[in-house]
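Re: beginner question about structure tokens

> Can someone show what the tokenized structure looks like for a real chain? I only ever see the sequence side.

Sure, here's an example I had lying around. Input first:
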Amino acid sequence: MSRTIRYVSLFLLLPAVLLVLPISAQQGAKQGQWLSYSAENGSTGYSPVDLINRDNVKNLQIAWSWKFDNFGATNTEVTPIMVNGILYFPLSPRRTIVAADAGTGETIWTWRPPQDERETRAARTYARGVGYWKDGAEERIITITPGFRLVALDLKSGTPVPTFGTNGSVDLFESLDLDFPGDLIGRIGNSSPPVVSNGVIMVGPALTPNAPSYKNVKGDVMGFDARTGKKLWAFHTIPRKGEFGYDTWLNGSADYTGNAGVWGPFSTDDELGFAYLNIEDATNDFYGGHRPGANLFSNSLVCLEIKTG
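And the corresponding structure tokens:
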């Protein structure tokens, strides 16, 4: 892979026939699939498929390459998911979503977010991946645009699902529990895939790093109904007045401090119904003199109930 990460390559063992072996472990990718950023929601990053081993890895050759050259000049930090032999991945900086055949590299469909000032002035333009949801025969790709819109796409056609949100999209600016007086454009967005578990889509925000002021947007984590897009809950990573943890921010600093987002991928235990949030520092990253106290829940690992937040 090139230094600027400009293409996806599939390495094929030649000669060989792909064999998906029975899965003995309870965790890891199932049936040769890769349904989330780290194989499955527990983030094991593990697949039991053992076609490639220490004896034959030297025989790997490039089978195909999918070049990003026509989709923008920024680096791509993406891990594709794979559903039924099809790869799904976003392309920076506009987060065009691509479906491509994993065996041949053939493009099956693409979807590009609508372009407006909110999308082009976004806080984060690159994306690390997409989410996947299935209920019976219905399957969707879940993505977040640079301008902080949550979108559900039909898995087979790549078209927005009209019954999700408003014509396939949920405005995450409007979903935030904020009274921030400034412009949200360029301050809050997303960089990692939405996490889908137990019928809930969870969105972790990415905020402006090293913000010019300690008075920035708060990094609330939100949960949405995976079928309808209805907002179910919000977890305030910086507690509001009257909430647990508010008194750990001395001198009223919780009222004006921002960030404390969840910009990195996070994990869930689907059976227990828990999500594990890796929450970043509050403003201003490397300096916290304006916010004395323990500052819950910044710089914390927090376990949430997926259904309720």
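Each token stands for a local structural state, so reading them left to right follows the chain. The chain has one domain: 7-305.
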